[in-house]
UniProtKB/TrEMBL annotation:
Species the sequence originates in: Stylosanthes scabra
A Pfam short name: SNO
UniProt KW keywords: Glutamine amidotransferase, Lyase
Protein name, entry field: Pyridoxal biosynthesis protein pdx2, variant 2
This enzyme's EC code(s): 4.3.3.6
MF terms in GO: pyridoxal 5'-phosphate synthase (glutamine hydrolysing) activity
Length: 196
């Protein structure tokens, strides 16, 4: 991305236009990022959070998992979980008070091992903590995973409705409104293969 575009992108976010950042887009929208290369990275900002780049590891550690997203499910229907495709994914470590957490994901925070009487190691005291993987703050939606890589359109519908809310609050001009008429169905989920 050309650095000359950053002022325009920052202004676009700042004036309240609907924005959705997935994966690297989440990193760009964050006010602060950690785990960066030496010298850091330019950020568009606007999202009051701290993001860790590549939190889940390198490209070969990419994965798919069920992600709990009750807010999206309550508005869009369907199950409370969504198939998240995490590709060298970031995670939100801290979120400000204006940030609405839409989805989080459990990660082991403390794994200790001990040996049994036969000398074999056994895992015990595995505690689960969570990292944030989807948020909304005003005009900004951000996901650490890639909803566009599944047949489940609920995140897309959620974003379009969010955009409509923003546009409706700014103007009464109905020509600017995006019409959303997406009905969730189980059939949509089965149209694309899921690799595990």
């Amino acid at each position: 991305m050309c650095l000359c575009q950053f002022p325009s992108l920052r202004e676009f976010v700042k004036i309240g236009r609907p924005v959705w950042g997935t994966c690297a887009g989440l990193i760009f929208l964050a006010d602060k990022a950690t785990g960066q290369k030496t010298g850091g990275q330019k950020l568009v900002g606007g999202l009051d959070c701290t993001v860790h780049r590549n939190f889940f590891g390198s490209q070969i550690q990419s994965f798919e998992a069920e992600v709990s997203a009750p807010e999206v499910a309550s508005q869009e229907g369907g199950p409370e979980t969504f198939r998240g495709v995490f590709i060298r994914a970031p995670a939100i470590l801290e979120a400000g008070p204006e940030v609405q957490v839409l989805a989080d994901y459990p990660v082991p925070s403390n794994i200790s091992t001990s040996s049994d009487s036969a000398g074999e190691e056994q895992k015990e005291n595995v505690e689960q903590s969570k990292v944030i993987v989807a948020v909304r703050q005003g005009n900004i939606l951000a996901t650490a995973f890639h909803p566009e890589l599944t047949a489940d359109t609920r995140w897309h519908s959620y974003f379009l409705k969010m955009a409509n809310e923003i546009i409706e609050s700014e103007t009464s001009n109905s020509q600017l409104q995006v019409q959303v008429n997406i009905n969730y169905s189980q059939k949509q989920l089965n149209e694309l293969p899921i690799f595990q």
